[in-house]
Amino acid sequence: MKFAAFSQVCEQLEGMSGRLEMIDLIASILPSLSDEELPVFVRFVMGRVFPDWSPQKLGIGPNLLYEAIGYVAGRKKAEVVTEVNRTGDVGGAVEHLLATKSQTSFFVEPLTLCGVYADFTRIATTDGNRSQREKLRVIKGLLGNAGPLEGRYLSRLLLEELRIGVGEGNVRDAIAGASGVNPALVAHAHQALNDLGEVALLARTGEASLRDVHIAPFRPVKMMLAQQGTISGMVEEHGSVAVEYKYDGTRFQFHKVGEECRMYSRRLEEVTGAVPDVIEILCKATAHDVILDGEVIAVKDGRPRPFQFVLRRFRRKHEVEAAMEKIELVPNVFDILYLDGETLIDRPFSERRAVLETVLSEYVAPQWVSDETKNLESIYQEALDAGHEGVMVKTRGAGYTPGVRGKNWIKVKPAVDTIDLAVVGAEWGEGRRAHLFGSFLLACQDEGGDLFPIGKVATGLSDNDLAFIYQHLKDLVVAEKGKEIVLEPKVVFEVGYAEVQKSPNYESGYALRFPRFVRMRDDKSVDEVETVDRVAARYEQQLKSL
Ligand code: AMP
Question: What is the distance in A from the centroid of ligand 1 to the CA of 392?
Fold first, then answer.
């Protein structure tokens, strides 16, 4: 497939608002693609370049892209920035600049989907001192061969922000439609393989191969997630349930085959090098090949320390030893997904738990099973007394559903209402904070992953917080108008609030009353922020409790 044809499809999709219409268009294209093109198309159309399990990243900031486009279009970088500010969209700006460039190149080689992917892979695999220069060279080459429309989508893809409204759900349904297979099987294979590109290939060979998927060590699986709820609600609905402490640490997935062990964070980034102590503990605690799910906490004198201490360790790249001396980490394992070649995610939790207890000699998180609300509430109190965040209540009959925030795991913690939102903009501060961002525009997401502002936060931020946040956000500036800044949405804030209100002032239709910064959640990615639907549910819930 030519990249020009792909760009036309993107343009069509961008102009569509109906979900079914989008699914039909994607489904009509899939059969015409070769086996090499199919996985690339499937990921590209969702704005992703590499499989979700893969540690590969393009790692291209807007600055590098502006430099490349300036070179190709014969403009100064400052002119490119002005154009991006004018259009408010990198893709639109690149399209305009390529359409109006003064020199035309004579040796244009048409871009193909697979050719672009090969170049992206080259970008992701260059490292060392010369890597920026090499990346720039490849991007210049790509943009030099691109027409205006191709430039629009190529540049957005380079920033891994396609913004054409195609989410995983649409693509899953298109795959099922194109191959005539059951959508539930596509969804299940996707959970296990964590790459819709590969799932699309399997779907071509029929339902049997989709049914027979296995998870593989060193290929991280998305983590199962929890909803908010109550102990009594879970007991009423399910009778006997399992309760565990809710540890205030950081989620991990531990993979082991023989002596080789690796650890991944909640965002599936490899953190093996940062936590050799935890790796050693877990590696010694089992003789089996396993994939384990758990939460690692920082401990001092037997009591858990706040979550930030764990993150400090997870982020370490240098002086790991010194950090180890200062912050002791302890893993708490609560699930097992794989044992000695066998995928366990479809087995009921009660069975997985029994397996876990036999394969791991230590560090299994304690669990209580009961159908008595009163008993379980006393465990909740015990958890709080011991310095944990609350408890997790889990149904015992359910499988492990990667990436799903379902009703089989419920979190119960004291009522401080907080919400995780994407930071999509900022404003320069004032007075002694004039060189830093002082307030932040926050957004929730819809089903397709599009972001809608819900309010601004400027309180709860110390000078230290602001300096720290500035370091994280300064390279994400996409456009600037006066004091206002548009940011590439990459960072998640947890904010506290008094109430959700309906509001015409923000695109989400809602606003937060008394928003207050709680912390930066760099363990979460933007696709995990609160959805508009759940904001609406919070609003309804408030009305009920009035
Ligand atoms: P939240 O981050 O508020 O959505 O809460 C869910 C998170 O609690 C999970 O992603 C885990 O990181 C964490 N957690 C702590 N203890 C447990 C546990 N026993 N079982 C599952 N998740 C836990």
Answer: 7
